[in-house]
Design a protein that fits this description.
The complex is a heterodimer of chains A (108) and B (80).
Chain A (H helix, E strand, L loop, with lengths): L3 H12 L2 E5 L9 H13 L4 E4 L4 H11 L6 E4 L2 E4 L1 H9 L3 H11 L1
Parallel strand pairs in A: 1-2
Antiparallel strand pairs in A: 1-3, 3-4
Helix pairs in contact in A: 2-4
Chain B lengths: L2 H11 L4 E7 L2 E7 L8 H11 L1 H5 L5 E7 L1 H8 L1
The chains are: A alpha+beta (108), B alpha+beta (80).
Chain lengths: 108, 80
Amino acid sequence: MSDPILDMIKKEIEGNTIVLFTKGTAEMPMCGFSARAIAVFKEMGVPFKTVDILPDPRIRQVLSAYSNWPTTPQVFIGGKFVGGADIIAEMYQNGELKPLVEQALKGK
Amino acid sequence: MDARDIKDKIEQGIPGARAEVSGGEAHFAAEVVSPAFEGKSRIEQHQMIYALFRDEMARQEIHALSIKTATPAASGRRDA
């Protein structure tokens, strides 16, 4: 019995080079941490997708089990879990994020 | 649950950990230095800490826990 929510999550991860599972959307983030992660990708000017987890509480449960990460936002790049707001901010500040993003976008 | 409880739980739960925890009202920030992080990716280091608070986070006693981790070597460079 496949789980439609898990299928949706996997589809978003595999279908988008950069996808952020957030509370709220890029236009209307509903949580400071989600907003911070979104701002990083906006500043980099790269295409990214956000998936709002608020409409259905099961999304967060299935997602957290899938990535073994209890909080949001959760950022996936090139199909791989990269981290939450802290790790993304840290990687952006120390210059690790840009090459990872550029390489993933090229690899597409 | 306050910053003191979180600090104690991290220092008991992660071998050789030194934790600085700030915050309140379910929003906390923790800086943790431990030799146990050696050879682990940043995600794995953070997951070690989140694993200690699975119940508190499920009960929303902790709503947000932002984390910064380092090995003693890495943190030494930063303090020098």
